[in-house]
Write a structure and sequence with these properties.
binds NADP nicotinamide-adenine-dinucleotide phosphate, about 35% helix, 2 domains, alpha/beta, six-stranded parallel sheet, 9 helices, Rossmann fold, about 20% strand, 13 strands, seven-stranded mixed sheet
């Protein structure tokens, strides 16, 4: 299928970007530029290697240069909470910013995305959003056909992504959550937050003793060749899981997913999650539905060749 033509850069071109450190591995420029082209916008999406100590200045600089918005990746998502002018409820709820939208007042005095305004007034603010949390459960629903309310889920990992996933699963009404992390204190801290916010969820800081509907890997084990499995098979057999979601998307099939397939589980990797967090960011910047299929094709081509 032929992809839409990208408009040439001229003096009216507007910009968005991803900031990370490092950033050279990012597939976001390929995915977002495909979405931008499909929408027929004279925009470009760039990637910048921004050191954490320069993040505040880099956000202010993008605002001064009339950028549309930003995505933030490792290690900026927590730092940015204190560096944007305003926080959307999603960033407050999930405690991290992965998307910044620059906003100005429209003719009625309401804040609106600068991407939707023909002229950008002098007063612009940066507003932080989180599109990661919704992307996790959307990908699980679409790629595994799994509705999470009332389900039993084992979450492996309690870093940034594991914490967001566990909180979002609790918010979506899972019945039982099993949290396992190498550093137990981090899983305990996540469990404490969930107990406070979602007291109805049954929480266990250990492997399940019976079957679960989903195992979700949010550790970085599987990224590197030769990594061990992120779970202890003597404590939990994958035969007891109906489905396994691995947030890792490179490689496409981690040792965990291979083992899960062999054990008869439905499986999905993290590409759908990456797609949906990016598509939601583009929705927020344009005020339009992001074109998922061209974005998915560009992402798949960029990541898997
Ligand atoms: P992070 O905050 O650094 O957390 C890393 C997690 O992996 C922690 O739970 C850590 O345990 C665990 N871990 C690391 N090395 C380990 C080892 N040798 N043995 C056991 N556990 C180990 O990273 P993150 O941002 O949460 O990312 C986690 C994973 O999700 C990464 O693979 C990342 O690529 C993926 N991810 C995917 C997407 C997507 O869009 N698909 C988005 C975000 C993240 P400790 O707490 O004990 O250190």
């Amino acid at each position: 299928m032929s992809e839409p033509l990208t408009l040439p850069i001229d003096a009216r071109t507007r910009y968005c970007a991803v900031y990370g450190h490092p950033v050279s591995h990012s597939a976001s420029p390929a995915m977002q530029n495909a979405g931008i082209a499909a929408l027929g916008l004279n925009w470009r999406y760039l990637a910048f290697d921004v050191r954490p100590e320069e993040l505040g200045k880099a956000i202010v600089g993008a605002k001064a240069m009339n950028f549309i918005g930003l995505n933030l990746t490792v290690p900026h998502k927590l730092l940015a909470l204190d560096m944007v002018d305003s926080l959307d409820d999603s960033a407050k709820l999930w405690g991290a910013v992965n998307t910044v939208r620059f906003e100005a007042r429209d003719s009625n005095g309401n804040w609106q995305a600068v991407g939707e305004l023909a002229e950008t007034p002098a007063e612009v603010r940066s507003r932080g959003f989180n599109t990661d949390a919704d992307a996790i459960t959307r990908a699980v629903r679409e790629d595994l056909g799994l509705e999470l309310a009332g389900k039993k889920v084992l979450v492996l990992g309690a870093g940034g992504a594991g914490r967001t996933a566990a909180l979002k699963l609790a918010a979506d009404g899972v019945a039982e959550l099993f949290l396992v992390n190498r550093t137990r204190e981090k899983a305990e801290a996540v469990a404490q937050e969930i107990r406070r916010l979602y007291p109805r969820v049954k929480l266990v800081l250990d492997y399940p003793s019976g079957p679960v509907d989903l195992v979700l890997n949010a550790t970085s084990l599987g990224l590197k060749e030769g990594d061990p499995l992120p779970l202890a098979e003597r404590d939990f057999s994958l035969e007891a899981a109906a489905a396994v979601f691995d947030m890792i998307y490179r490689p496409a099939e981690t040792p965990l997913l291979k083992r899960a397939k062999a054990a008869g589980c439905r499986t999905a990797n993290g590409l759908g999650m990456l797609l949906h967090q990016g598509a939601r960011a583009l929705d927020l910047w344009t005020g339009k539905r992001a074109p998922l299929e061209p974005m998915r094709r560009a992402l798949t081509q960029n990541v898997y060749g």
